[in-house]
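One thing: can you check what follows?
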Amino acid sequence: MQAEIISIGNELTSGAIVNTNARWLADQLSQGGLIASTQVTVGDDRVYIEAAIRTAAKRSDLVVITGGLGPTADDLTREGLAAAMDQPLEFHDDSWRQIENYFAQLGRTPGDSNRRQAMCPRTARLIPNSCGTAPGIHAVVHEAAVFVLPGVPREMRAMFERDVDPEVSRLTGERAVVMRTLHCFGAGEANIGEQLSTFMDPARNPQVGTCAEEGVISIRICAQGDSRDEAAALADSDAIAIRNLLGPLVFGEDDDTLASVVGRLLIDCGATVSTAESCTGGLLAAALTDVAGSSAYFQGGFVTYANEAKTQVLDVPAALIVDKGAVSREVAVAMAEGCRRVSETDYALGITGIAGPGGATADKPVGLVYIVLASNAEPTVRECRFPSHLSRRAVRDRACKTALNMLRKLLL
């Protein structure tokens, strides 16, 4: 059983807005037991829209299209669908009355251009829009069920849940798809992919794949079964096997973040943490406090960007900074230990480095960051040399995640 998603609009192909509709639709389809094998984005061009619909309908059982149903001249999805069906567009009086009633509820009168929204191919049917002016369209093209929905997310979601979901259930019956996502930090995608090679056979059920985003490697497990229980059992089995294989590289799953996982571990052991940041400028403290309930374990953070602040707030000796430099192992240790002492916490994380693009020297390039985890034992020191191609934002982000991962592994 194949499904396909087509998103239409120049604002999508130009990158002016992010295509959140396709992601939402893919998730809804998978929950209903259908995997979207293809996602296509097409600009406001009738010829390209027609071609995309013809191709999708020939290879898929269900095609869901969003966008291009507005009243303006660049809304050409109706025309593209009609061409793909080799049918003319026809005006529907009932749909026009619904549009007029919607405008009346707003105290307005529809313009002549809105009449386009009451048109659809001869054998298709218009789907009422309960929260907007653009009706959807349900058609059959090459035996595929085709649903055309508005691009406005609120309207699209309401129409999908009411009109498309039942068709998905009819197509899949009891068939179910269950997803599990494991998140890793501390190794590259290629390294993790090599370790998972036996899981990543395209013909295998569950299907396993990886994706990388800002240093986090996510492993997506997609299991299909004749019932939800069967699919869940397959997904859970793979998740357990992959966790056992990768060990502490896996920090969580689904909605987990490094900060939320660290928070749970701190609560479990009744411990507290504080932060001392230079190059990251408070991002580490922000990540920790993004988690609800973090006041149970996060005592506070210090942004000691200037050398004077390191000395005045954290008692880092001024002579040490002069001798070793603000970006050094020794200063990072002094920052973390001073932070722990001032905050009276079980753990403290100190970060100092060169995020760029300036401020580097031959000995201390952009991307050099020292991270220290202070506790009642010897401090743990990590010298990081993040790749030079990373942006300032990316260097700071990687430094924060590395710090959180250091604390996570110690707590484990």
About this structure: The longest strand covers residues 216-225. The radius of gyration is 28 Å.
